[in-house]
Amino acid sequence: MLSNYEFNNPWLLLFLLLVPIMMYLYYARNQRVKNTIALPHAAKFKGSTSWKTWARKCLPIFFFLGIASLFIALARPQKVLQEEEVKAEGIDIMLVTDLSSSMLAQDFAPDRLSASKRVAIEFVEKREYDRIGLVVFAGESYTQCPLTTDHQVLNAFLNNLQCGLLEDGTAIGMGLASAVNRLKESKAESKIVILLTDGVNNSGYIKPLTAAEIAKEVGVKVYCIGVGTRGTARAPISKKANGQFVYGPTRVQIDEELLNEISSYTGGQYFRAVNQAQLAQIYDYIDQLEKTEIEVNVFKRYKDLYRGFLLFGLGLLLLRWLLSNTILRTLP
User: Fold this and answer.
1) Multiple choice CATH, 91-291, 3.40.50.410, 3.40.930.10, 3.40.190.80, 3.30.70.1890
2) Disulfide engineering: 262 pairs with which of 83, 212, 291, 313, CB 3.0-4.6 Å?
3) Residue 174 phi/psi, 5° resolution?
């Protein structure tokens, strides 16, 4: 790109204006002074042109190009080699995702889990300088991906999430506790958990409020998101012998009071998403609330390019002199 190039002495480029003036004076002078030689029977030479004739016409072009190249070399062209040093005060984030069978409810397109995965991946891609991890839970919980800056790997884990990998149920306390355990040794100034669920805590040996107390003690802020429409939704109600779910109308139950209490106690916020658009807005809002402090220092180095123009210009002038004084020499 031309924006990566500049001149150390750009004012010297004004000398290039002399080149067209020199060309005008040269060709105007040649038009006025024409020497002719009378040759008998010149008709037989008509239409015959030697290669030397064409080469001789190139001599002035060599001269003017050479002079222009020398003027450009005087202006000292340079290529800008730009480097950036980024100092980022990153935020450590644990995503906690519900994988209970109710996350297959079809009030989101195509279901709650798929919509949640898409929005979470978009969120991760915006957090370039943060370490992010992933905990999943149903009737139990485990860390799917520890804190990492390799967001490509994390997004691969998010893409592969599916219900049925864990014993069914909703162990909110277990999921939160697993995430807090991953964050307790973090040296980041800001540590947050984004907990997404669509149900009521009914499993696990750690109570959600106990996990919230631990989170507060280690300085972890919890944002809770309840996903699901209000009323009823088409969701799994049983399972066939072959493992396939049977769907039917199910009343949506989310313990909003509990989720709100967890968020408030740890300094976070609770959100309710009844469709994918709202869910995306919630993640965008959290993204704005939890901004990473970034300091970018730009350093510039320069690579001189004048040598190429200098050698090219001198080479053309030398070639013109050699040709005009040897094989293309003309009699005065």
Assistant:
1) 3.40.50.410
2) 212
3) -65, -45
